[in-house]
Amino acid sequence: SPSPRPSILHLSGRAIRYLSKRRQERVGLIGDALRRDCFDLALLQEVWSEQDYSDLKVKLGGCYPFSHYFHSGVIGSGLCIFSRFPILDTLLYQYSLNGYPYMLQHGDWFCGKSVGLIVMKISGIVFNVYVTHLHAEYCRDKDVYLPHRLVQAWELAQFIRHTSQAADVVLLGGDLNMHPEDVGIRLLRGWTGLRDAFAEATRFEGCEDGCTLIPNNRFTVKTELLPFPLGIRIDYILYKAISGVTVKCEELKTTTGTAPGMDMPFSDHEAVMATLHIQRQGQAVGDTLGTAEPTLVDVVTEARTEVVVGLRAAQQQRYSMGRMAVLALLLLLLQAAAALGALAGLAAGQPFPKLSFSLLAFLAIGVLLLATSLHLFHTMEVKMLQGTEEQMRMALRALQERP
Length: 403
Description:
Layout lengths: L6 E5 L11 H15 L3 E4 L5 H11 L5 E5 L8 E5 L3 E8 L13 H4 L2 E9 L2 E9 L12 H18 L5 E7 L7 H10 L2 E2 H4 L2 E3 L29 E7 L3 E10 L17 E9 L12 H52 L9 H48 L2
Parallel strand pairs: 1-2, 7-8, 10-12
Antiparallel strand pairs: 1-13, 2-4, 3-4, 5-6, 6-7, 8-11, 9-11, 12-13
C-alpha cells in the first residue's frame, strides 16, 4: 500500500488570547501560513476565542475540509485540529487537577486544560491524533504547580495507552510546559513509548536545540528566560507505531522569529513542523513501553514522590481553610449572642450599634463562605492526588513484579 507521509504542524502560544496584542492580525497570519503550506494536520492550542476558530475554519476550508474544536472549562480548552483527511471520531478528556481558581493572574483553572483526540484513516492506516496543553510552570525555582502538572502528564499517558489500542499510529502534539529532561516528560514517554520527533529527526532546521520559547521573541517574558539564554523547548511532537507500521521522522522544523514580511511573530511560541514517513509492515510491532523497566521504575518513583509532596501541601491547605471556616462560624455565633444581649438591654435604654454589627456580620459571612469553598476545593484536590498516588503505587508494584 502507499506510504503516507503526513506533514504535521503544531502551533502553540498566546497568539490568540482574547487580550493579546494585535490578536486578530496574528490569527490572520496563522491562517495564511496554514493555507500556504497546507499541512496534512495542524494542531493548535490557546485558541480561546471560538470566533477565531470559526474565522480560521472559513479561511482554511479549501485546504483543510475537516476540523474540530474541543469545548472545555469556562473559557474553553483552546484546543483545535485542522485536517485534510476525514475525522472519524473525537473524544475529550479534562484533567482532574488544573491549578487554583483563586490564582486569577494565571488563569489556567478557567481553561479546563484537557487532551483532545481525533481518529482518522490515511491509506488504510488508523491514526490516533492527540492535542493537549498542560499547566504552565510560571516559576521554575518554586513550582507550586508541579504536582498538578505531573497528575496531568500521568493522566495524559494513561489516556493515550487506554484509547490507542485500536490504532496503528499514535501522534501527540502540544504545549507540555516541561523541559525535555523534566520528570513529567520522562514519565509520559516512558509510560507510553512515545518518541520525540526532535530527537529522532533525520534533518532539523530552526532554533538552536529545538527551542520553542526564545528570548528574542517580542511576546515572551524575558525575565523567565534569563537562566536559559538560548530559550527552552516545551512544545513537542511525539509519535509511535503500535502495530504493523513503522514511523520515522524525516524532518523537523521550527519557526525562528517574525512572520514572513512582518515585524512580529505568529505567537510567543515558535511553531513546530514535522514530516513523518509511515510505512506498513508485514509483522506487528506491538505496544511496548519506551524505556527499560528499571529506569521506568525510577521515573515513576520520582513522579510519585512529587505527587506526595503536593498531597501534603493540599492537606495543609485543606486544614487551614477548615480552621478559618470554623473561626468565622464561631465569630458569627458570638455576634448572635452579643446581638441578643444588646436587644435585651434596649429596655434599659442602651443603644444598639447596628452598623458595626452589620459590617462585622457581613465580614464573618464572607470569610465563612470563602473558607468553606476553598476547603471543599482542596478536599477534592487531596482526593485527586491520592488517587494518582495510588495508581502510581500500583504501577510500580506491577513493574517490580515482572520477571
